[in-house]
Amino acid sequence: MNAVFAISQDLGISSDRGWHLAKRQVDRIESMLVQFLEYARGFEAEEPSDISLSTLLNRAIKAVDVVGKVDVEVTEDLFVSVRQGALIRALGNLMINALRYGAMPVRVSARRGGATLFLEVADRGAGLEPEQAKALTRPFARGNAARSGDGTGLGLAIVEQAALAHGGTLEFSKANGEFVASLHLPLSRLRPHS
Q1: Does an H or E element contain 49, and which?
Q2: Rg of the chain over all Cα atoms, to the nearest angstrom
């Protein structure tokens, strides 16, 4: 806050509107720096720890302040050993994208399918073709809808990095009127238990 005040004073901004504008820009720069540092560091250094799937999804929802805006669906509440910060960040990025570029309702879910854990964020928006969405996992890549927004172009790159840190992949699909971003994580790496 003091930095924003100092910057606004240096720029000769004295009105409340100007001060809020300066604060918004500083917040935006800070958010961009945090995302860049997260991407540069990666998630390999984070030690896996046990967490239930329902707790993981709810922490991700709280982390990006979308409580009440996203439906949660957990078919089997397993405990898994994961890099919690990585997956909370990944799911948060996907939920923010769904709310910003998709359509309601937005759903975050966890389900087991054979030897794979699927962590999914789905929305009712038109979405992109899966190949187009996959191209946006490159660092600093941005879709047409995001070009004029506040994004950094690192959101999906961070999601993919979190999937890779668990030996998994990030996949996209369109079916039954939904666009789905899904982390496919091998259960053998997550030591699931009840």
Answers
A1: strand 49-52
A2: 18
Contact between residue 90 and residue 155 where contact means Cβ atoms under 8 Å apart: no
Query: Can you list the positions of beta strands (E) in 75-154?
Result: 79-82, 106-113, 116-123
For residue 7, count other CB atoms closer than 10 A to its CB.
15
Planar angle of CA 65, 131, 34, nearest 5 degrees: 35
pTM: 0.77
Cα 110 from Cα 144, distance rounded (Å): 29
| pLDDT in 10s for each residue of the chain, 194 residues | 555 555 555 656 556 766 677 777 676 666 655 655 665 566 678 899 999 999 999 999 999 999 999 999 999 999 999 999 999 999 999 999 999 999 999 999 999 999 999 999 999 998 888 888 777 767 656 555 443 455 556 779 889 999 999 999 999 999 899 999 999 999 998 988 87
Give the H/E segment covering residue 56: helix 53-63
Measured between alpha carbons, how far is residue 31 from residues 61, 153, 172 in Å? 18, 12, 25
